[in-house]
Design a protein that fits this description.
Layout lengths: L1 H4 L5 H10 L3 H16 L25 E2 L12 H28 L7 H27 L9 E2 L1 H8 L4 H29 L3 H31 L4 H12 L10 H6 L4 H4 L4 H4 L1
Parallel strand pairs: 1-2
Helix pairs in contact: 2-3, 2-4, 3-5, 4-5, 5-8, 6-7, 7-8, 7-9
Pfam family, one: DUF455
InterPro entries: DUF455, Ferritin-like, Ferritin-like_SF, UCP012318
Length: 276
């Protein structure tokens, strides 16, 4: 996407343009190009003429967006079921690209160190990589992203926390991304069990990267809490109760979460079992 990337004024501008892009190839290429240019220090953080981040990310005409309850679940023993799983993961990864870019574009004027933006552009780059890997796997199964309906709940979390960086960090990396640490190992094992090693290999890459992404979220959440003299676990619980609908569902991958800096003191009190 060189014609688009040549017009980029700053990191904030490039991130906002990538969120706004409706073409999937353009979005992922732009996300990775902006990340590379930022990491090689060829972009400033902000410009007075920057594009503003949109309230909703650009999307192609398909998939149709429906309520989460309308997304059909199928057995992973069938090819059709594995396609449905990959489609759901592709949708999650596409949203993750936009969520990482949006935190950069929307909070670029916040008093955060340069390394904060380094971390989130690393996340954006890797989420774009994940989306492309999952889409390639779908295409290898004679399917594609957009063939099935998908739900819109992930972007709702971004919209609800658009004015509060600490709340955004609590909800997106420390709830939504951390959920991937809980569910991916069992999905990975199931793919190996049914002999779909190509899908399992993709899930393995995603799982290892998601550990880093949760760690980036936890690092900066703790940073802000320390700067403001707040207890991180209690602050997390207050923000989640105010900004996230429903309790957190066990089982939790406590070891992977703790390795990323998200210890059980953060989330156990928010478990749906403890909130019922």
């Amino acid at each position: 996407m060189p014609t688009n990337s040549e017009r980029i004024l700053s990191l904030r501008d490039g991130a906002a343009r990538a969120v706004r892009a409706g073409d999937l190839l353009e979005k992922t290429a732009l996300a990775q190009d902006v990340a590379n240019r930022w990491h090689s220090r060829r972009l400033s953080l902000r410009s007075p003429l920057d594009t503003l981040p949109p309230l909703r990310p650009g999307r192609p005409a398909k998939p149709d967006l429906v309520a989460p309850t309308q997304v059909v679940r199928r057995s992973l023993n069938s090819r059709r079921g594995r396609i449905a799983l990959l489609h759901a993961i592709a949708h999650i990864e596409l949203n993750a690209v936009d969520l990482a870019l949006d935190i950069v574009a929307r909070f670029a004027a916040s008093p955060m160190p340069q390394s904060f933006f380094d971390g989130w552009m690393q996340v954006a780059f890797e989420e774009a990589k994940h989306f492309k890997l999952v889409r390639q796997r779908l295409q290898a199964l004679d399917a594609d992203y957009g063939d099935m309906p998908a739900h819109d709940g992930l972007w709702q979390a971004a919209h609800d926390t658009r004015n509060d960086l600490t709340a955004r960090l609590a909800v997106v990396p420390l709830i939504l991304e951390a959920r991937g640490l809980d569910v991916t190992p069992s999905l990975l094992a199931k793919m190996r069990e049914v002999g779909d090693h190509d899908t399992a290999d993709v899930l393995e890459i995603i799982y290892e990267d998601e550990k880093k992404h949760v760690a980036i979220g936890a690092k900066w959440f703790r940073f802000i809490c320390a700067r403001e003299g707040k207890d991180p676990a209690k602050t997390f619980q207050l923000l989640v109760r105010a900004n996230f609908r429903g309790g957190l569902k066990p089982p939790f991958n406590d070891l992977a979460r703790a390795a990323a800096g998200l210890t059980p003191t953060f989330y156990r009190a928010l478990s749906s079992q403890n909130m019922s």
